[in-house]
Amino acid sequence: MVASGPHRNGAARPAVMSISQAAASEAVDGRSGSEFRRGVMSCLPVLLGTVPYALVLGAQARQKGLSALELPMMTGLNFAGGSEFAAIQLWTSPPHIVLIVAITFLVNSRHLLMGAALAPFLRHLPRRKAFAALFFMCDESWALGLADARRRAGANVTPAFSLAYYMGAALAMYGAWVAFTTAGALLGPLLGNVEPYGFDMAFPAVFLVLMAGMWKGVAAARPWLVSLVVAALVYLLVPGAWYVAAGAVSGLASAWLMAGDA
Amino acid sequence: MIDMATLLAIVLMACVTYLTRIGGYIVLRNRALGTRATAVMEAAPGCVLISVIAPSFVSRNPADLAALAVTILAATRLSMLPTVVIGIASAGLLRHVMG
Predict the structure, then answer these.
(1) Is residue B61 part of a domain?
(2) In terms of DSSP H, where are the helices of chain A?
(3) Residue B27 shares a structural domain with residue B56
(4) How many A-B residue pairs are in contact by the CB < 8 A criterion?
(5) Which residue in B24, B68, B90 is closest to A119 by CB distance?
(6) What angle do CA A224, A173, B57 make, to 5 degrees?
(7) Are A247 and B50 within 8 A, CB to CB?
(8) Closest chain B residue to A90 measured between Cα atoms?
(9) Do A46 and B86 touch (CB under 8 A)?
């Protein structure tokens, strides 16, 4: 209910409460160091799943002929794990540049939606800060930042979006991603296959907890079900990374249509 | 050692990815949303998240499906860290027991 901004819910609350809330939020925002730490801490469980995934990417990239200098350039400049896995799968020597860039766009096209969902919460930021913050927007930092902004908006805290919290989560993710993909490239063949140990389940686990936090009842979750069914079918039937775009777009289309019924 | 074709591929990947990151923000930054657009934006995060993890729901490995069911149950009741630990442990255990 709060995606369009923190202001709508505020009017109905008693004035006394919003004044004390505003004072509390000022105190919180004055200590951006503690907000940054709060962001880093909330990202730690996510890193449990990311570290093995990063090591595997580094090891695979090394096998495909990328050097231990080229790989951190990729993970540091691009910083989008899904597209990096896809690129490494498709990597040849020399690389097929057009194919790799097109697949990168396809896998990362979900960022367009993610940035759009975050945009209403970034209105209080100067454009320069917003553009810098968005460089670090990955699935995890976006989801943590947005979930936190919605929670704060629900509690009438302004601004709902805590930049320091978001950057704490995002930089923890960024540092771990670049460091551990590099470690994977250096350690390479020593690692073997980590999948049997179950670390890959951390990724769905994180996303499911975030979705549980966004739960607003069965009716509001119907588009999610549409997304799940379409994404799963496309994943099974169509090769490549189309399933993310297909699932997201069909879920949004159903949200658009259902909004007309209400 | 940095190969020029590799460098070009990496720089172009980074440019395209950054454009996807700022694109949605640039388009929607100064725009008020209507009812339908608001409904779409409210559904968007969940739709993206569930689409990314959809392959886990159609895994051919029964152990993975069982571990996913355990993880979903945990996610509805517990906070982030215990859910992630339960997810990893159940996937690891069930793959050894059932696989």
Answers:
(1) yes
(2) 7-10, 15-30, 32-63, 70-77, 81-90, 97-108, 110-118, 127-135, 139-154, 163-187, 202-214, 218-237, 242-261
(3) no
(4) 296
(5) B24
(6) 30
(7) yes
(8) B9
(9) no
**Distance separating alpha carbons of residues A84 and A74, to the nearest angstrom:** 8
Q: How many structural domains are present in chain B?
A: 2
Instruction: For residue A251, give the chain B residue with the closest CA.
Output: B47
User: b/e per residue, B50-82, with b = 16+ CB within 10 A?
Assistant: bbbbbbbbeeeeebbbbbbebbbebbeebebbe
CB contact under 8 A, A105 and B88: no
- Residue numbers of the domain that contains B14: 1-31
Intra-chain end-to-end CA distance of chain A, in Å: 14
Q: Tell whether the model's pLDDT for residue B15 goes beyond 90.
A: yes
Q: How confident is the model at residue A193 (pLDDT cuts 50, 70, 90)?
A: low
The amino acid occupying position A18 is S
B95 and B60, same domain (yes or no): yes
| B52 in the same domain as B23 | no
Domain presence at residue B64: yes
Same domain? B52 vs B97: yes
> Which pair of tokens denotes residue A73?
């350039």
| Cβ–Cβ gap B20/A211 under 8 Å | no
Please tell me the distance from the alpha carbon of residue B57 to that of residue B1, in angstroms, as a whole number. Answer: 42
Specify whether B57 is located in the same domain as B99: yes
Tens of pLDDT, residues A48-92: 878 877 887 898 888 888 999 999 999 999 999 888 987 887 788
The domain locations on chain A are 30-214, 217-262
In the DSSP assignment, the letter for residue B52 is: H
Q: Note whether B58 and B17 are same-domain residues.
A: no
Interface test with B, best of A1, A83, A208 (most B CBs within 10 A): A208
